[in-house]
């Protein structure tokens, strides 16, 4: 796995669903110089575990925004799947009410560039390149600063959910360092 900490976050332009609308050339560059970003990957729309994280980020969105942090999600599904899931009520497994951007990475290039795409390419007996495994994203989370540099990353297997409080703690720790120039103790 690539370690992106200390490096510029891989740039991309992709279709995203933002406030219930398709945005054709969504990019994290919109936040440069303005906000920190929590950019997280999840495996698939309409799965059983993913809505718990997506909704937990939504439920804590004001906590992140009050600290100048944008939340952006991404999976290897299409923007049509994102929109359908956003219109599905929470009571039946949907993520209705989610307002932060969801990026569609159906080409799988964003997940690949962030090194969170499961599976790999190999050659079969006929010498043809084929994909081995499941081409879905692992549960990657990246804290990106206002200059576009990755400051924190964590990647979990698909079956292991993340703790939203820990993501917020990492934001606070990094901002403490930015403001004080001192190493942040464990809190």
From TrEMBL:
One of its GO terms (biological process) is cellular response to stress. Gene3D superfamilies: Glutaredoxin (3.40.30.10). Residues 3-176 form the Thioredoxin domain. The keyword Transmembrane helix does not apply. One of its GO terms (cellular component) is cytosol. Keywords: Oxidoreductase. InterPro entries: AhpC/TSA, Peroxiredoxin, Peroxiredoxin_AhpC-typ, Thioredoxin-like_sf, Thioredoxin_domain. Thiol-specific peroxidase that catalyzes the reduction of hydrogen peroxide and organic hydroperoxides to water and alcohols, respectively. Plays a role in cell protection against oxidative stress by detoxifying peroxides. This is Thioredoxin peroxidase. It comes from Hymenobacter amundsenii.
């Amino acid at each position: 796995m690539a370690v992106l900490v200390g490096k510029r976050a891989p740039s991309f332009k992709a279709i995203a669903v933002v406030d219930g609308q398709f945005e054709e050339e969504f990019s994290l560059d919109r936040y440069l110089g303005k906000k920190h970003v929590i950019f997280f990957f999840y495996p698939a729309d309409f799965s059983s575990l993913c809505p718990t994280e997506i909704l937990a980020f939504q439920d804590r969105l004001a906590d992140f925004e009050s600290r100048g942090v944008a939340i952006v999600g991404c999976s290897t599904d299409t923007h049509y799947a994102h929109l359908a899931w956003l219109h599905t009520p929470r009571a039946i497994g949907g993520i209705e009410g989610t307002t932060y951007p969801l990026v569609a990475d159906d080409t799988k290039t964003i997940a690949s560039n962030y090194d969170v795409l499961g599976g790999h390419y190999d050659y079969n007996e006929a010498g043809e390149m084929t994909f081995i495994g499941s081409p879905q994203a692992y549960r990657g989370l990246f804290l990106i600063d206002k200059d576009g540099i990755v400051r924190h990353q964590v990647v979990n297997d698909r079956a292991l959910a993340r703790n939203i409080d820990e993501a917020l703690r990492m934001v606070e720790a990094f901002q403490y360092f930015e403001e004080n120039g001192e190493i942040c103790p464990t809190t």
